Amino acid sequence: MLENFAHTLQQVLERNLALKPVVITTQVGDMLPVVKELLTNVVVKFVRHLVPEWHIADTAEFNAALRAGHGQVLEALPLNHRDTAFLQYTGDTTGVAKGTVLAHRNMVANVQQMSA
Question: Which of 15, 27, 91, 114 is deepest in the core (most CB within 10 A)?
Answer without folding.
Answer: 27
